[in-house]
Amino acid sequence: MKLNQLRLTRPLAALALFTALSSTASANFTVTGTFNYRDRAFSYNAGFNGNEPALPIRSAEVQVINNSNGSVLSTGFTDANGDFSIFVVGSGTRDIIVRCRSQSVFFGGSRLRCVTTSNVLYSVSSALFAGWNQNTDLNVGTTISEIITSGGQEANPFNMLDMGVYSMEYITSVGNPNLFGQVDIEWPGGSGSFASGFRANIATDDGYDDTVILHELGHVFMNMYSDADSPGGSHSFGDSDQNPLLSYSEGHATFFAAAVRQFMGIFIPAIYMDNNSNGSTGTGTIGLRMRLESAQPYQSSTGGEATEVGVACVLWDVVDTTATNDGNSTDDDALDGSQLFNGGIDGDQMVWNAFTGPAAGASQVTINDLWSGFFNPTNYGLYPELLGVFDNFEIRNTLDPEEPNNSFATASILTSGTAWSSIKSLYYSASNPPAPGDHDNDYYKVNLTNGDQFDAEVRYPNGNSNAHTYADTHLYIYRPNGTLFNDDTDSGQGRNGALLMQVADQTGEWRIRVTTEGGHRETGSYQLRVFRSGASIDSFDPPSLDAVTIGAQPLTINGFGFSSLTRLEVNGVLQTLGSFPFGSYTVPSDSQILIHDVQQLSALGLIDIDVTTSTATASAQIQVNAVPLPVLRTTTANTTQTVGIDLEVGSAVGDSVWVSVSLTLLPTVYPGILTLGIGDNGTDLFTVWKPSIGLKGWRKRHYGPLSGLSGITGYWQAFALQASNGFNPPYPESNIITTVISF
Amino acid sequence: MKHPFTLICALSLSAGLFFSRELPAASAGISVLAPQPASQNCKPEAPIRLELFPSDLIGGRSRVDYVVTPVMDALAIEVTVEFPGGGNPRWHTPPARGAAERGRELGGALSVDLPTNLSGVEVIVRAHISIPDAEAPDGIGVYTTSRSASWGDLVRSVNGVTETVIDGELTLDTAATRL
Predict the structure, then answer these.
(1) What span, in angstroms and rounded, lies between the C-alpha atoms of A579 and A596?
(2) Range of the domain at B16
(3) Could you read off the pLDDT of A707-716 as tens digits, one per residue?
(4) Which distant-in-sequence residues (6+ apart) come within 8 Å of B134 by Cβ?
(5) I want to staple A174 with a disulfide (CB 3.0 to 4.6 A). Which of A179, A209, A314, A352 is the partner?
(6) Mean of the pLDDT values across residues A576-580?
(7) Is residue B175 in a domain?
(8) Distance between the two ends of chain A, CA-based, in angstroms?
(9) Residue A284: closest CA among chain B residues belongs to which residue?
(10) Among residues 185-214 of chain A, which lie with CB inside 8 Å of chain B?
(11) Residue B178: inside a domain, yes or no?
């Protein structure tokens, strides 16, 4: 119910409560008049703009006073227009003065006052009507309480009282017409406004900061009608990692100010401003401001349950509609007033019901308790719309797609890898609508092998360290047999759990559980990942090596952890990183190392491949075999030789290999003994080297350029006297290699 | 007062002072107003924290050390001082005015001369933070957190009122315009 409706239910004339002072009075008269106060207008973009209208002092106590002796003749109250009409019993003449005091008793008998910190009321008095004939009605005219100061800061106590009256009128409209105790608004209150119990202490320079006054009254009424568990103390807009107990208390108070201003019908009600009241005007008076529609200018750090700005903005979106007086006929959220909540109530009523109902009874009350109160015990409906409003400010009271994954049996599959999961929410409820959603446990399953080194960790959504830092996760890891392997609560980012460099001691399906530490962070959002850490060599391709090959002999090492590779050794020989021909290997991915050409190994049999990364080492062995038949190769890349060639020959251990060179590609055939493709039947065949193959399975020799020959093509081929054959024929031949001899 | 980063101090005086938190506690009679005790709910403040560490007032002179900490990344930081009841700054070494990242603690100090004929005196320190604000001139909004250090019994007088007693009850009657 809004202010205009409220006015229709109250008499336009002042309530005529009066005290008869004389039982023998024979003449009565009525005293009328108007009391106003000087206000200072402000706006979001201009600060105090210099407008100082006279506004009615509403619902305030009025005394008709015998100025001769200072006694009160009769008492009444101002109405919504600041008018009063008080019946006085009296006769003869009196010196009459009418005074308005800064208190109201309209709300259930308890007083709402504006006082000094010494509990002294303020007042404003009419002119003195000396010797007034009490047979005649008296109109004292309009009296305007003007600006007062303290420490150079301007204020008016009736402005502060008016904020209290508007607050109670708003609260009356949502069903609570009675104050449960005296409420005092104290001014001047020093350098910081604050609230304690039912007292709102207004700083010396906040006397005209209506949103500050309403904010502190918001705390007072939270203390009176609901529950607050905030640790209190100083707090700032733009802080996105607050205690959520404080965020709720402060955010609700800021929301309350905007809700009352909307009730008042003020243009653009959804702002918070704290200005300097030293009498100056203009933007220089603006000390702090914020828009509840957009969180401007703090939107970059607003999001989640642990930001008071987020709480204020989300509650504002619940109550604002297309009818909000903001110069805009639309609403930027789905709760635009076109639908009412269950019971035919609007957003203000619904929020108040949850505020004074379930939230009032919650321990460690946060915004999530208010959210739960929207659906339990009374379901006020419009769940999808409310969900969207809350999600806009990243208060994710929604089940993530994995739910329900609240047990071993229902654990979700988690893909192992360094990539973070999608954003998960610790929120689950089987109710419809799903609220409350605390005490959620999220289970995941991942396959690990005995001996695997792995990391498991949780972080805030997108690793954000500023906003969204609400979750306080606890991480548990269970073995395939169900026993607890390890757990952690705060080793990860912020308040998140992490277990690094763990070594699996079973093979099978492991379980990961993420839950909250509880307390006042019962829900929250997070991301998770589990991945094999360190480094490992799993396989080789090819699975074995030859001592010598005709062409290049590449080797692929398969495993993981290679992205941070710092050192690679093959049989103790350090390899160089780089593409061919600049290096001996590359690392195309975290799971592969590619060696371009493995040759000239110093041993046959099992050799070591050693990998070193920034965090781990890994080793494996690969078999190197001697070639069974002779192989001939030049290890010099350029076969056009000005300085000779490097010749490499391989064969089985113990073989005697005859290496020949010829200028002709005509064959040499000795049937049953050997068949060569060069030498022209031995007429142009020169045996230049007869190495015996040792334990390495290969030999190497350098040949300088042959004198007298230039630009001539030479053909090289070898044959082997095999030890395995007793050095008897036939003698198998090798491949032919071709070089150009020049000098 | 300790200066643990003495070398840094000497090299970066133009950047302001950096000092530890181990400063002498405020003596009896000194009060640092706002933030309020944890049991009280304070008003929202600008995204910059300000802590004052005043020393004893001796002969009307005192030193006030302070620390400012931006709650958001700041485009600029500035600190100003006011003397509502009179007084003058002898010197003031503020932190550097430039940008500062969220959470960075910046120190400053000032020495003040205050009236000696009052029961209580105070100095107000204001920390101003510049942040991006699309609705502010040049897209930069400047917002302020204030703290007050006081010595003695500060009397907060109200001007423009008259004490009146009606039925034995005191009120402060405000100035009025009567039509």
Answers:
(1) 8
(2) 6-154
(3) 665 677 889 9
(4) A296, A297
(5) A352
(6) 90
(7) no
(8) 107
(9) B142
(10) 188, 190-196, 201, 203-204, 206, 212
(11) no
Looking only at the bridges linking them, the beta strands covering B106-113 and B61-70 are antiparallel
Q: Which of A116, A151, A300 sits opposite B84 (nearest CB)?
A: A151
Is B1 contained in some domain? no
Residue A297: which of B49, B133, B157 has the nearest Cβ? B133
**Closest by Cβ to B172, choosing from A45, A116, A274:** A116
- Digit-coded pLDDT (tens) for A89-133: 988 899 999 999 999 988 888 999 999 999 999 999 999 999 999
- What is the rounded distance in angstroms from the CA atom of residue A572 to the CA atom of residue A629? 27
Query: How would residue A393 be classed by pLDDT, with cut points 50, 70 and 90?
Result: very high
- Write out chain B residues lying below 8 Å of A268, CB-based: none
Q: What is the DSSP-derived secondary structure letter of residue A232?
A: -
For residue B166, list chain A residues with Cβ-Cβ distance below 8 A: 63, 65, 70-72, 99
Instruction: Indicate yes or no: CB of B171 within 8 angstroms of CB of A121.
Output: yes
Tens digit of pLDDT for each residue in A515-530?
998 777 888 889 999 9
The phi and psi torsions of A218 (rounded to 5 degrees) equal -60, -40
Nearest chain B residue to A125 by CA distance is: B173
Which residues have a Cβ under 8 Å from the Cβ of A69 and sit 6 or more positions away?
none
- ipTM of this predicted complex? 0.82
Long-range CB contacts (< 8 A, 24+ apart) of A403-410? A403/A428, A404/A428, A404/A430, A405/A442, A405/A443, A405/A444, A406/A440, A406/A441, A406/A442, A406/A443, A407/A441, A407/A443, A408/A443, A408/A478, A408/A482, A408/A511, A410/A443
Indicate whether B7 pLDDT > 60. Answer: no
> CA-CA distance, A183 to A199, in Å (whole number)?
6
Alpha-carbon span B97 to A628, nearest angstrom: 79
B36 contacts A142? CB cut-off 8 A: no
Contact A182/B at CB under 8 A: no
- Provide CATH 2.60.120.380 ranges for chain A: 412-532
**Region A327-337: what's the mean pLDDT?**
91
Q: Which fold has domain A412-532?
A: Jelly Rolls (2.60.120)
pLDDT in tens, A38-72: 999 999 999 999 999 999 999 999 999 999 999 99
> Which residue, among B22, B176, B64, B159, has the nearest Cα to A153 in the 3D structure?
B159
Give A401's strand partners. none
Q: What is the pLDDT of residue B31?
A: 64
Cis peptide leading into residue A377 (ω within 30°): yes
Subunit contact A301:B72, Cβ cutoff 8 A: yes
Q: State what percent of residues in chain A have pLDDT above 90.
A: 75
CATH number of A226-395: 1.10.390
If one counts the domains in chain B, the total is 1
Interface of A with B in 235-294 (CB under 8 A): 235-239, 249-250, 253-254, 272, 274, 283, 286-290
Task: Indicate whether A739 pLDDT > 90.
Answer: no
Q: Where are the alpha helices (DSSP H) in A185-288?
A: 210-225, 244-264
- Whole-number pLDDT of residue A741: 62
In a domain, B95, yes or no: yes
pTM, to two decimals: 0.77
The CATH number for B25's domain is 2.60.40
Give the position of tokens 């005209």.
A208
Residue A707 CB neighbour total at 10 angstroms: 8
Q: Residue A72: which of B39, B147, B166 has the nearest Cβ?
A: B166
Cβ distance B177 to A234 less than 8 Å, yes or no, reads: no
- Taking residue A432's Cβ as centre, other Cβ atoms within 10 Å add up to 9
Q: Which CATH class is domain A631-741?
A: mainly beta
DSSP secondary structure letters along A291-302: ETTT-TTSGGG-
* 3-class DSSP state of A150: strand
Tell me if the domain spanning A536-625 has CATH number 2.60.40.10. yes
Contacting residues of B for A272, CB less than 8 Å apart = 44
- Region label for A538, one of left (φ > 0), alpha (ψ between -120 and 50) or beta (otherwise): alpha
